């Protein structure tokens, strides 16, 4: 290829990239999780696929060990490297993975080093250097049609019966995948990631679909407040309670005891450790499924959902770490805070101590599961009352920010609104952790 032809090719690639980015800007992205069926591959092809992750680890550790000058001058055409084994001895390695994988590992590591340098410059502190990796479980596939592509049917239709196969660079045989039904027919495929998990290898495929008009909720449910807790994980202002905890089974505890008795590094030790990793992955999937179901039940059909910015990490580090670890509170909170319908109240708002009449009940303790207001005599389950208090605080926040509000603060304030406004203006200390862990 002559220099002029190469320049024209590069310009054509840049123009296609600009056009694609402009088209994707008007579309909606989403990620599909597809599981590869390795049974359709022979032993050589299956071993080659797993070898990609091993070679990426070799290359990553080799690049981390280079000096800065040699790292900047590294050529992505390099196939021979020298890495260290588990005993620290240098071993010559030959890379057989596609060249695009080498480029992606180098680019990813270069970006990590730049981010670390920017963080060090911003904080003014010495943050150290990147650590060597014991495993490399995610391979970037950033060029659809080169590193990966969806196999089309005999008539060029990707929606036919052959749509459930995918090609990975370096593997000649198409690989059957599970989960293609979640991708719409008008989706446009983009980059992906090849992820290795204890249960197998997955393809995280990024797709773009046209933006459709948002579907209007058929239901018109009332506004709701959500209270997070330990004994009862989720409590709503309507009195509903959800348990989103999935605790460890006896099988997992037995495997951990078995691993402790085995010799580290033996074949049985690795087999038991893999079984433990599968059990933990199964637990994680169950918790994600429960969090998704509760999220759907809470958000669907509502215009306003009020939650409190609870310190879930602090709960985990405290006396209730085991209960928090077995629940999906963190996952559910992250999903709720990403929704536009959610209104988040300050973390230190005394939702447990403040009554719906506005009185502050300072003498309530964690053992008091029923809230009794000494001022108005209101009696309610403490978690349900906390959720109702959060809902009132959220409505007060909205009322104070409405542009058409013409009444004075004194005219529009109820007893609760006045108490909430006084709490915001005061320098009262935050709510005690013992009263917030409901």
From TrEMBL:
Q: Kindly list the GO molecular function terms attached to this UniProt entry.
A: DNA binding
Q: Does the keyword Nucleus apply?
A: no
Protein family per UniProt: In the C-terminal section; belongs to the transposase 35 family.
* Organism from which the protein derives: Candidatus Ornithospirochaeta stercoravium
| NCBIfam families cross-referenced by the UniProt entry | guided_TnpB
For this UniProt record, the keywords arranged alphabetically read as follows: DNA recombination, DNA-binding, Transposition
In this chain the Cas12f1-like TNB domain maps to 340-388
Q: Which InterPro entries match?
A: Cas12f1-like_TNB, Transposase
Q: Which residues form the Probable transposase IS891/IS1136/IS1341 domain?
A: 212-313
Q: Does the keyword DNA-binding apply?
A: yes
Going by the entry's taxonomy, the superkingdom of the source organism is recorded as Bacteria
Q: Which GO terms describe its biological process?
A: DNA recombination; transposition
Q: What is this protein called?
A: Transposase
């Amino acid at each position: 290829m002559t220099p002029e032809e190469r320049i024209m090719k590069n310009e054509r690639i840049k123009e296609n990239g600009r056009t694609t980015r402009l088209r994707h800007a008007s579309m909606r992205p989403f990620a599909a999780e597809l599981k590869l069926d390795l049974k359709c591959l022979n032993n050589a092809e299956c071993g080659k696929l797993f070898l990609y992750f091993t070679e990426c680890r070799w290359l990553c550790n080799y690049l981390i060990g280079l000096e800065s000058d040699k790292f900047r001058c590294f050529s992505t055409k390099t196939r021979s490297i020298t890495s260290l084994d588990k005993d620290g001895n240098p071993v010559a390695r030959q890379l057989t993975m596609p060249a695009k994988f080498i480029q992606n590992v180098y680019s990813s590591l270069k970006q990590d080093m730049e981010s670390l340098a920017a963080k060090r410059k911003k904080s003014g502190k010495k943050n150290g250097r990147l650590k060597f990796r014991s495993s490399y479980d995610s391979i970037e596939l950033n060029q659809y049609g080169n590193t990966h592509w969806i196999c089309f049917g005999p008539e060029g239709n990707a929606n036919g019966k052959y749509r459930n196969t995918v090609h990975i660079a370096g593997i000649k045989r198409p690989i059957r995948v599970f989960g293609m039904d979640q991708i719409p027919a008008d989706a446009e495929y983009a980059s992906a990631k090849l992820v290795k998990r204890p249960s197998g290898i997955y393809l995280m495929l990024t797709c773009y679909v046209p933006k459709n008009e948002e579907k209007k909720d058929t239901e018109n449910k009332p506004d709701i407040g959500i209270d997070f807790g330990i004994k009862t994980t989720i409590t709503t202002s309507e009195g509903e309670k959800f348990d989103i905890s999935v605790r460890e089974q006896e099988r997992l505890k037995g495997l951990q005891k078995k691993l402790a008795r085995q010799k580290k590094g033996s074949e049985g030790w690795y087999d038991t450790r893999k079984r433990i990793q599968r059990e933990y992955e199964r637990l994680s999937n169950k918790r994600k499924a429960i969090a998704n179901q509760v999220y759907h039940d809470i958000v669907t059909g509502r215009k306003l959902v009020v939650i409190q910015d609870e310190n879930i990490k602090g709960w985990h580090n405290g006396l209730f770490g085991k209960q928090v670890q077995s629940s999906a509170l963190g996952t559910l909170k992250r999903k709720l805070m990403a929704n536009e319908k959610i209104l988040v109240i300050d973390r230190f708002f005394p939702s447990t101590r403040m009554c719906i009449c506005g009185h502050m009940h300072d003498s309530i303790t964690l053992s008091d599961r029923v809230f009794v207001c000494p001022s108005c005599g209101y009696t309610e389950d403490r978690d349900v009352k906390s959720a109702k208090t959060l809902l009132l605080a959220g409505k007060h926040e909205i009322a104070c920010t409405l542009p058409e509000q013409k009444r004075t603060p004194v005219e529009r304030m109820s007893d609760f609104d006045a108490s909430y406004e006084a709490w915001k203006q005061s320098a009262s200390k935050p709510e005690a952790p013992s009263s917030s862990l409901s």
